[in-house]
Amino acid sequence: MMRICIIAEGSYPYVTGGVSSWIHDIITSMPEHEFVIFTIAAQEKQKGKFKYTLPANVVEVRETFLDTYLLENGRWGKRFKLNKEQKDNLKRLLGEQGEIDWKVLFSLLRNTQFNQVSDFLASKDFFDVLEELCQERYPLVPFTEMFWTVRSMILPLFLTIREQLPQADLYHSASTGYAGIIGAVAKEVYKKPFLLTEHGIYSREREEEIIKADWVKGYFKDMWIQYFYRLSNCSYEHADWVTTLFSRNRDIQIEIGCDSDKIELIPNGVNVQKYIELDQKKPDHLIYIGAVIRVVPIKDIKSMIQSFALIKEEVPNAMFYIMGSFEEDENYYQECLQLVNALQVKDVNFTGTIQTLDYIGKMDVLMLTSISEGQPLAILEGMAASKPFVSTNVGSCKELLEGLEDNIGPAGIVTPVMHYELMAQAVIKLCQNGKLRKEMGRNALTRVSKYYRQEDVIVNYRRLYLELGGDSNGRDRLRAEKALS
Fold this sequence. Notes:
The chain is α/β, with parallel strands linked by helices. The protein is 47% helix and 14% strand.
C-alpha cells in the first residue's frame, strides 16, 4: 500500500465532471492505496462544500483557498536582507530574462523569518526588487500600479508555496499552475516522486483568459501571461513523469519547455458498460438537445444559447438541456439567463448538477461549445451512450469525433470556436436526419469501445504509481521502457 497525494486546482471535490470525475475514478478504482487530497480552490466560502462522497480510501482532505491573502495585513517597511541570488530569482519570476532557480525561491518563501507573506511583500527588500525591475523593464509604468498588480499576482502563489504539505509516497498533480507548484515544492521538501498530468494546457488557457480580460491593463497582460508560463515550466522541470491525453497536447508541452523523454500519452476513458440500456423514454414528438457542461465562461454557454435560438426557428419541437453546475460562476450564469430572456428563446433548461446517466439516454443530439478543452469526458460519455455530437474544434474533440484514420466513420460534426451559426446548422442537420443520428451514434460507440476504455486508464496509472512510488529507480526504468517502445 502507498499513500498518494492528489493535488487538484479548481476541481475535485468541489466541482463535478471533467477532471473531477477523472480523479474520483482513479481513487475509487485503487482501493489498495490510501489517498490524500490537496485541493486548491478560489474562495474560502467553498470550504467543505464537496460535490462527491469521498471514497473510504481518502484518509485526508487538505483545503487551500487563494483568496485568503485578502485577510493578510503585512507590517510595512521591514528589511529581511535578501542576497543577490534571491533578488535575481524574484526578478526573473516577474519578467526579467534568465532561468529561475526554484529551489532558491522555495527556500526564501518558506523561510520562517517572516510570519506571513504580506510582511515580505510590504518589506523594503521587495520594494527594492520591484524598483529595479521597473527601471530596467517597465520605465513608463507608474510604480504604484506596478506594485499592486504584482502583489495581487504573486500573493496567492507565495501563500501556496508556504502551505503545510501532507506527507506521501508520491505526489500527483492534475494540472500545472498552483497545483503543479505544490507538487514541485513537495518534491523539494520530502524528496518524493512527482507525477504531473495535464488534461488541458493550463498556461495556454490562462493566456486566452488574460487576453480577453477587462481587469488586466494592456501593458500588464504580457507580464501575467509569462508568469503563468513560468509556473508551468516549474512543474515540468520538477516532474519525474508527465502524462497527457493526446499528441497535440504533447507537442505544446514540448514547445513550452517540457522534456519530451518524460511525457507519456494516456487518453481518457469511459466505462462503456455503464451506458448500455439507458433510459431513453421521452415524448416522441420532441427533439432533445443537451450539453453536459459546467456553466463557466471557458465553456462558452452564450454561443450555445445563441445557437439554440437559431435551431428553434428551424426545429420548433426542440428542447435544450444545459446539464451541469452553475454555482461556480454566479455572475456568468446570470448573464446566460439574461441572454435567454433577451433572445426570447423558449425551452432552455438549466438543470444544475445531475447524474449524467439519468439524462443522457434521452438526448437526440449533444453539444460542446468550449473555447478550450483537453479530451472532454463529456464527449466520451456521449459516445458511450451512442449519441452524435456537435463540438467546437478544440483539444482532441476532432480526433474523438472523426478518428485518426481508424475507418470507423464520423461520430459527430466539428465547427469553429464561437461560430454559433455553423453550430446551429450542424445541429439542425442532425435533428432533421434520424438515420444520420443513428449512424453517427453507432460510430461513436465503436470508437470509444475500441480506443477509450476506463479500464485501460486505471491499468496505466496503477503501473505508474508502482513504478514511481514503489521504486527509487522508477523514473529511469520508465525512460528506458519508453525509449524501447
